[in-house]
Amino acid sequence: MKKVLFLLAISFFLGFLNASSLYEKLINKETISVGTEGICPPFTYHNKEGKLTGYDVEVARELAKELGVKIKFHETSWDIMLTGLKSGRFDMVANQVSLTTKKRQAAFDKSLPYSYSGTIMLVRKDENRIKDIKDIKGLKAANTLSSTYGEIAFKYDAQIVSVDSMAQALLLVAQKRADLTLNSSLAILNYLNTHKNNPFKIAWESKEKDGGASFVINKHQEKALELINQAMQRLINKGVLKRLGEQFFGKDVSQP
């Protein structure tokens, strides 16, 4: 028991060190480290040349430019991304995070949103059992366990088939190893538009958009968050988010 408490204290202390240093990095124009998946187009992925890009990635680059700091990306899986943030492995997360749970809201703060999205359920074209989100009870949902969409599937009593990416989720559904997958409406609509001969259809779509995806940092960094939000507002005013939205989605996604 003492060992567990000691490890928890160390984890908290490391998170505190990271929290206290981000503001210094910003005002001293140093390098900030950003966690992202790198496997989730069109938000964070590698293009044909192998360069890390995507809407979230490019917004993060523009934010760093506006703040006058350098940026270094750390690609990691979603399941350990927020743990990495808390432990001090990186300063910020750029990965379509909306902090929907009370547990996450207690541990992290988020910037002004840079995109808004709903939730879409994708199934095979021959799937006729699902007309509503409540119909997924007992069915297999291919989703990342700790993601917003995995939490939605769990809430409605689906059996979660754990995956690491949207591409893997779609493969499992196509192979009938899962019945459905839930994901961002922006990600799914982008996939459907770029893969015309796909075996899927939309079974359900949320009527409301989420609270907005934002950059996420550890709690107790009010001064750093203020600088980030000021820079984000300048990017909005300059039309930078609008331009990037049109580049990746064909429309401005920074407004609810």
Keywords:
D-Maltodextrin-Binding Protein, domain 2, 256 residues, 5-stranded mixed beta sheet, 2 domains, 9 helices, 41% helix, alpha/beta, 3-stranded antiparallel beta sheet
Walk me through what this model shows.
- The structure is a single chain.
- With 256 residues, the chain is an alpha/beta fold.
- The chain folds into two domains: 133 residues, 3-Layer(aba) Sandwich (D-Maltodextrin-Binding Protein, domain 2), CATH 3.40.190; 92 residues, D-Maltodextrin-Binding Protein, domain 2 (3-Layer(aba) Sandwich), CATH 3.40.190.10.
- Helix content is 41%, strand content 21%.
- It is built from nine helices and twelve strands.
- The strands form four sheets. Strands 4-1-5-12-6 form a five-stranded mixed sheet, sandwiched between helices. A three-stranded antiparallel sheet has the order 10-7-11.
- The radius of gyration is 19 Å and the shape is globular.
- The termini are far apart.
- The N terminus is likely disordered.
